[in-house]
Amino acid sequence: MLILAFDTATSVATAALVRDGDVLGEAVTTPLAVLEAADRLLAEAGGESKDLEALVVGIGPGSFTGVRIGLAVARGLALALEIPVAGVSTLDALAEGAPGAVPVIDAKRHEVFVRVGEDIVAMPAAAFEAAGRTCVGDGALRYREHLERTGAGIPPDDSELHVPRAQFHVRLAGAFRAAEEVEPIYIRAPDADRMLA
To answer: Which end of the chain is more exposed for a tag (fewer CB within 10 A), N or C?
Structure first.
């Protein structure tokens, strides 16, 4: 099965082309350039969009706009190509790429998205601690000083452990379904909704 996966929930987007578990190619880009990256991966593998059999998309949490970009791209491609989609949490993909580490996504507003038990929450960055643990993700980078001061370890800024690599989305993908059935993980209302309230 030839699968295209991508995640645009954070400031660094990724795309991967995977056939039967083998990674044919992977790209790191920006959320707005994810389609271009996907097209390049297909061309490098000698394929075309019509060869795709399924999609996997990162469903957040992360930037509201980034999550919406990813879902819109997935829905558009799935409808045009008549293929199914699976959604995977961006936090789970980060964790899969750094076993044993704590994934931390920058939630803006001086907050981070993290898992607390089975729940994904937004919490004040200043209140989050992971003493004795390694933290990865753009939230770990942004709040490195606080996390290290409270006893957490953070890999170097250029480490690929901080990127929600799309190949891990494929590994974590559950049931494939119609694109419109894949729901985002937002955690909180977008800023625009708050301003209108």
So the answer is: C
